[in-house]
Amino acid sequence: EAMFSYATMFQAFGEASAAERAERIAYNAMAATWASPKGGDMWAHQYLQAVNEIAAKHDHPHVWKHDGDDAEKYGLAPNFGCCTANFNQGWPKFAHAIFHTTADGSIAIGILAPAKATIPAADGISKPTTIEITTDYPFGDDVTIDVDAAAPTALLVRVPAWADASASPTLTLA
Known about the structure:
Helices cover about 25% and strands about 15% of the residues. It is built from four helices and six strands. β1 (about 100) and β2 (about 105-110) form a beta hairpin. α1 (about 1-15) packs antiparallel against α2. It starts with a helix and ends in a 17-residue tail after the last strand.
């Protein structure tokens, strides 16, 4: 939900820090939730995740009265079933936050991920615009963005905050 909220804030206000936070949650916290010994089955999930938790167990009475006795226990649905019902929404909401169009017809990329989109033609342009991102990001630093447009199109790309001047980010147009 936090990831979705940040992505929506980026879409509404255009603040790069919101997209940065959404991306960080997707590539770190959300992935960690799926990190069970079997992989991908959410058995490592906790309703309340506590740093350095040493008592991830049924605790009666629990210190947080409103969250129930199994709130820090590991499991698919240790406390409430909402996480089980909602976990499948994370990646689609993340994918929805990659490409955006702006009021002036520009294309904005808020989150870096391998993806492809077709943007319908508008204002007398006969051909839709296709845009594709090819990358291993966040496992690699290279990102290739291919745009096939019938007319000149402005492209806005959020550069990750970690890629400041000391990281020497470069842009090559082909």
